[in-house]
What we know:
The structure holds 3 protein chains of 3 kinds.
Chain A: E1 6-14, E2 21-28, E3 33-37, H1 44-52, E4 56-64, E5 67-68, H2 74-79, E6 82-85, H3 97-104, H4 113-122, H5 124-128, H6 139-151, E7 157-161, H7 169-184, E8 189-192, H8 196-202, E9 205-210, E10 213-218, H9 220-225, H10 227-233
Parallel strand pairs in A: 3-8, 3-9, 6-7, 7-8
Antiparallel strand pairs in A: 1-2, 1-4, 4-5, 9-10
Helix pairs in contact in A: 3-6
Chain B: H1 3-39, H2 46-66, H3 77-105, H4 110-132, E1 145-147, H5 149-156, E2 164-165, H6 166-188, H7 190-200, H8 202-207, H9 212-237, H10 244-247, H11 249-259, H12 264-281, H13 286-292, H14 311-325
Antiparallel strand pairs in B: 1-2
Helix pairs in contact in B: 1-6, 1-9, 1-11, 1-12, 1-13, 2-3, 2-4, 2-9, 3-4, 3-9, 6-7, 6-9, 7-9, 11-12, 11-14, 12-14
Chain C: H1 2-34, H2 37-64, H3 71-86, H4 91-121, H5 126-155, H6 175-194, H7 199-219, H8 221-224, H9 240-244, H10 247-255, H11 260-292, H12 294-304, H13 306-311, H14 316-342, H15 352-366, H16 371-400, H17 408-416, H18 420-435
Amino acid sequence: MSEPFLVGENLTGGYGSADILHGCTIAVDKGEIAVIVGPNGAGKSTAMKALFGMLVLRQGGVRLEGRSIDELTPSQRVMNGMGFVPQTSNVFPSMTVEENLEMGAFIRRDDFTDTMTEVFDLFPILKEKRKQPAGQLSGGQRQQVAVGRALMTRPKALMLDEPTAGVSPIVMDELFDRIIEVAAMGIPILMVEQNARQALAIADHGYVLVQGRNAFSGSGAALLADDEVRKSFLGG
Amino acid sequence: MDWLNALIVLANFVVVPALTYGSQLALGALGVTLVYGILRFSNFAHGDTMAFGAMATILATWALQSLGMSFGALPTALLALPFGIIATALYLLATDRLIYRFYRRQRAKPIVLVIVSAGVMFFTNGLVRFIIGPGERNFADGERFIVTAREFKEKTGLSEGLAIKTTQGITVLTAIVVVVLLFWFLNRTRTGKSLRAYSDNEDLALLSGIDPERVVIVTWLIVAALATIAGTLYGLDKTFKPFIYFQLLLPLFAAAVIGGLGNPLGAIVGGFIVAFAEVTVTYAWKKVLGYTLPDDIVPSGLVQLLSTDYKVAVSFSILVLVLLFRPTGLFRGQSL
Amino acid sequence: MSRDLAGTASEQVTLRAVLLAIIIVVLLLLTGYLQSWNTALVILDMGLISAVMALGVNLQWGLAGLFNVGIMGFVALGGLATVLVSMPPTIAAWSAGGGRAMLAILAGAATIAAALFVWRRIPGGAVRGLTVFAVLLVGFVLYRWLLDPAVDAIESVNPAGTGYLGGLGLPILLSWPVGGLLAAGAAWMIGKTALGLRSDYLAIATLGISEIVIATLKNEDWLSRGVKNVVGLPRPVPYEVNLQSDPAFVAKASELGLNPVMASTLTVKLAYAGLFAVVLIILLLLAQRALHSPWGRMMRAIRDNETAASAMGKHVTARHLQVFILGSAICGIGGAMLTTLDGQLTPGSYQPLRFTFLIWIMVIVGGSGNNIGAVLGGFLIWFLWVQVEPIGHWLMSLITSGMADGSALKAHLLASAAHMRLMTMGVILLLVFRFSPRGLVPER
């Protein structure tokens, strides 16, 4: 099998002296949606942060397009094509929607009006509210700003940390629709999600993490169908 | 009821001085609020930074004057301002590199930075006195008045005169220009927006590839300009004495807090609120009342709420009131 | 094993304290030999007072992490206390307007109390705001109507000599605890308002209050004679002239090989030093007991983790208020001692910039959180502050010795030597805070 586009292999490490991840492996390929699910404290967000370089890894490494990126800081990884949407505090609340998108494209020196148009096409509500401060938008709309902001760099891979946290089911569906559209543009998407069932439903690949280790891996559909997975994490 | 004369007295002794003082405070408070919003600490050294900036401008003014240069009707100090700003910028960048950067990298608690800024204040105060001496320096030249009281009375025929000093006019005009430039910079340029983004959400700004060191440098440059201009205008208008700038610290912080620490528009509004409050509360209203009330009920005393010695009490009281009732300030800056 | 290590660390701290104390004693002795014993004693007296104030500040910083920039205000209140307690009352002034002035102050206090009462009773909204404003306005007018003529009357009674109400004519030593009480009262008022907010807001608020206190002392002549100063404060120690005319004293002095004048000044200064030392030791002992008491441990626990402490139900702000009041009271006592030593109340001499930050340097250099460290820091920094000036002059003469006499630069540099003190102190603060933030004698 060819090398996945983005892979974090055998990740072991934590924030201080205690390890949170114990040799887990996460990968995503072009045009794919990969989802990381698991119980609370399983290390899902930690694994994502490891891929982004916000964690000290004792073992294992991260590769993008076959090249190791372990030495790069998070800002440098952004410049190398990774996009990251944090779970909280993921917009500039006092700046307008349009300014948020501009800041998303900060590292770009070329004209990014085309990209902004694409983002507005993807999230029409943002175009409507482009002059409003992002902090005044509803939760779901703010999440759209956050995703749009990350897309402004035309990332090669997009990582989302619990994008539907705290939003209503309707908004969650809409967000997932958008995420599928983004993936359809060819961008590999790696997503940590609490809403495991709905997330696995749209996932090409799923990773179930338990206590920092890979417990189950497979296609989204396969995991949904698996009895053990269903009983443990999906409530039967 | 002599409304016209009453208005002129009001304008001459309250409105014009308050507008001038308010412009100076606004520029100073802008510096305070920017450091708070972007660098996230209360800079106790800002008053003495203004003193440093004024001192540098004075030295440059003397140099220009000795070369025989002047600015006609306007003070030569205006020509010297760029040099003063450059000197202050270098000084601030040096203090940042040598002192503040260490604590910033450590993500030290805000109170630590405040204490450190107090040390910088101490040092700067001594440095200014060391370089230019502790005495009073009058460095305004050029035309003193735009319109004198006598000219005004002659032209209008009123018994009360309105005098507008050149320095007062310059202060207000310069403040307007500076504010417009600053807001253009913050809202329409990429660098300016990156400063706002950094102030708004530091982690996300870093994630967006905004270089924190660049933000810090640009901030100190702007602060240097603001402090130098404010300090020079204050020194031109009133007089230059190294120790008066420390006394501005309280009104400056009151202005910034009233407007909402971290909010530039708030700093400007706060500056004028403090200035007008100070002037109106310490003004002797007898004359105005004399023109507006019937003769028999005009009070015999000066009708001065507080003597000018208690100016500091005015800004302090406003500060306390704001802290008690609306700590985030009028424009909702960043409170805790 | 770990007990041993802890013991060693604690022993190290004690060792440092002892070393520092020895160094200070040696410095004082050297000053006495090389300059004069008079100078050494002057430094000692002020050093003792500085130590007391540093102790007060250390309580606030070390136990609660409070950055109180308003120390000068509390010191000034202590100074006011000496006047109010020990100066003889000016009977004529009291009969001219004293009663009315007291009435005015009561009216002012009643207005504030009424405003607070209204604020608490009426539910929030425009009505409440307007009512409070009306109460304050009426109260203010009443206060001024009562006060202004009284003040004029009082100040016109022999303005050159008195022109003020005077005091209670009690022994001046009583003013020391009274100064503490006055400062405590002011601290209670400020603390209630400004504590519980961000730490830099507290700093700004305390700065403001000290400026107002000092402005009041400078301007309310009827209370404190303002900038005319109150001279001739009674003394707790003998007067030099009295000693010089006492035959027994003169005889003792010549036995020691001293002329009467020198002996009398030295004796007086030593007497002050003795008094101050007694106060310092009492306060230090009390502070140490407080530090090691359960209350002290709780305070430090709160300081180290405020969120956890308040989650456990500790009323953090109330505790901070206690420390704030105690520390400020100690500064007030120090202020009374200072004015007693001066023999006069000079409102113009209270300069917030210099003295406040000097005391902070004492605390930080000495050892924040360690009472003994703060006290020793008080001595050391005061010594340096005094001696840096002659050293600065000497250094400057050295630097400018190569320059032509009468050159403007040379004159300027020589004159500026005094300002090097400020710069030096600023640098010391920054250096110590950066490289040795726990100070010379750190907290255990």
